[in-house]
Specification:
CATH topology of the largest domain: Rossmann fold
Strand order of the largest sheet: 4-3-5-2-6-1-7-8-9
Number of strands: 9
Bound molecules: guanosine-5'-triphosphate, magnesium ion
CATH class of the largest domain: Alpha Beta
Largest sheet: 9 strands, mixed
Oligomer: single chain
Number of helices: 20
Length: 495
């Protein structure tokens, strides 16, 4: 666990002995929240390719996938010493259930356990997969599904996510995005958007254009949209492609190219055309690769008849775009896991304080004395102030301000938005020399060391005035965070 997450957990636990029992329990939960592995929630409309992408990310074909509504329960994929499945019921109790053949999560777990499916809160899938080291992945039912509902106590089993991976079809509308991604809820890492099933939108080179158009149509709320072919990524990373599949592909590569290419125009045609591969083997290839993947693999084997399963998988993986998604996840979530976990704990304390404030207000209105409530309120206020005084809070406040400005939620003049992005990448929690030097270079300063302090002081003053001169509240908050960021840079350089 990282330094800031640990620090948050300690602060919460240290405050617990001085408050009433329910508040102490809630503080313990906030500490546990900071200590927990950060979670990424995968969200999107029904059949957009979420579970297929989850399998690719986890490196195992474990989540059920298929045409029609397939995922009916939230499933949390976590790292553990053995593979196992637990069904978590609405009352919090857990029932173990064997994984189905091939290590898949079985469909209809409610029936298998003899419980009402409505009583199931979520599935907890523990896997030995290294890909889950440091990142829990949460698969969800499609946004249009009637199965989506908050879990017990009004909290959904994905509500602790620090970031969302939105898997979108090319037809996604801005109003859907609002609903499915709820960027504000997922904290500073926000939402990483991908165009799912990108092989189905036209020629390979079209996918980039469609993704860019989708990003623009969604109003840049989600930032960049990356095209991804989850199916090829899943097949390539999970060992699903076997020697006999490669054999079938090689037979197709050796057949009349005109006949194979013509058959690939349509799935039915491909399964029934006169080709030197048994129909069930062709149907399996369609399941594993779809037509684009088959064309790609056959093309490779025509050029290099000696290419093995590993070579084919490498080509599929390269064409899938998974590497770009993994890279974005690393930069946006994994590399910032400590900060995000610390922030998640801090958010819980803020929620707790708000609830306590409401309770004390109610007591006051009803004429009830609540000395314990007033005492807890003071403790929680102190704790939150302490947490917010840490540099990690500042770094995340600036990152959030940058995300809000980029999303259009807060309007700023263009030159100030650039300034915000600059500072958001500066590592304000621990601004060492190399980070400050990078900041100076990115700010376009010639004499990096000499000029940065003066620049920081001027920018701090500018943002300060922007924060105070009649700005609307959203803008004032953003400006205040950036002001404090530049002030910290100045302080580091002049201390
Ligand atoms: N051609 C192609 N098909 C894909 C791709 N990804 C998924 N599919 C197929 O699309 C169908 C739906 O995929 P899922 O991964 O189950 O989609 P989902 O979003 O989890 O669907 P629900 O759980 O029902 O909401 C399956 O038949 C997949 O094999 C892809 O990248 N390309
Ligand atoms: Mg699914």
């Amino acid at each position: 666990m990282g330094r800031w997450a640990q620090d948050t957990a300690w602060a919460c636990r240290a405050a617990a002995p001085g408050v009433a029992l329910p508040t102490a329990d809630a503080l313990d939960a906030a500490a546990a929240r900071a200590e927990a592995t950060p979670a990424l929630v995968v969200t999107g409309p029904v059949s957009s390719g979420k579970s297929t992408l989850v399998n690719a990310l986890v490196g195992r074909r474990v989540a059920p996938t298929g045409a029609g509504e397939c995922t009916r329960l939230v499933a949390r994929y976590v790292r553990g010493p053995v593979d196992r499945l637990d069904v978590v019921l609405a009352d919090g109790s857990r029932r173990p259930l064997p994984l189905a053949d091939g290590g898949r999560v079985p469909a209809a777990v409610g029936d298998r356990l003899g419980v009402d499916p409505a009583d199931v809160d979520h599935l907890l899938v523990t896997l030995t997969s290294d890909a889950l080291d440091g990142l829990t992945v949460v698969d969800t039912p499609g946004t249009g599904s009637a199965r989506r509902r908050p879990g017990a106590g009004g909290r959904g089993p994905a509500d602790d996510a620090v970031a969302a991976l939105a898997v979108l079809p090319s037809s996604a509308r801005p109003d859907e995005v609002e609903r499915l991604a709820a960027p504000a809820r997922h904290g500073p890492a926000g939402v990483l958007a991908v165009l799912g099933r990108a092989d189905t939108v036209g020629a390979p080179e079209d996918a980039e254009t469609v993704a860019a158009t989708l990003g623009r149509r969604l109003g840049d709320r989600l930032g960049e949209v990356t095209p991804v072919v989850g199916l090829l990524a899943e097949t390539a990373t999970t060992g699903a492609l076997r020697a006999e599949d490669r054999h079938a592909l090689a037979a197709l590569a050796g057949a009349d190219p005109a006949a194979v290419d013509a058959a690939l125009a349509d799935p039915d045609l491909f399964t029934h055309a006169d080709l030197p591969v048994a129909a069930p083997a062709r149907a399996r290839l369609l399941d594993l690769l779809d037509r684009r993947g088959i064309a790609l693999a056959v093309g490779l084997l025509r050029e290099r008849p000696d290419a093995g399963v590993g070579d084919v998988c490498a080509a599929l993986l390269a064409a899938s775009g998974l590497g770009v998604v993994v890279g974005r996840l690393r930069a946006g979530v994994r590399d910032r896991a400590d900060l995000l976990a610390a922030r998640a704990g801090e958010r819980r304390v803020a929620e707790l304080l708000a609830a306590e404030q409401a309770a004390v207000r109610d007591d006051r209105r009803a004429g009830r004395a609540s000395p314990a409530g007033a005492r807890d309120l003071a403790r929680l206020t102190d704790l939150l102030e302490d947490l917010r005084a840490r540099p990690v809070h500042l770094e995340l406040a600036v990152a959030e301000a940058a995300a809000r400005a980029r999303s259009g939620a807060v309007e700023l003049p263009a030159d100030l938005t650039g300034d915000l992005d600059l500072l958001a990448g500066a590592g304000l929690a621990a601004p060492d020399r190399s980070r400050l030097a990078t900041l100076a270079t990115r700010a376009g300063l010639d004499d990096a060391a000499g000029e940065l302090a003066g620049h920081a002081a001027r920018r701090a003053a500018l943002w300060r005035s922007y924060a105070t001169w009649g700005s609307p509240p959203g803008r004032a908050d953003v400006a205040e965070a950036v002001h404090r960021g530049w002030a910290r840079v100045w302080g580091e350089l002049t201390a």
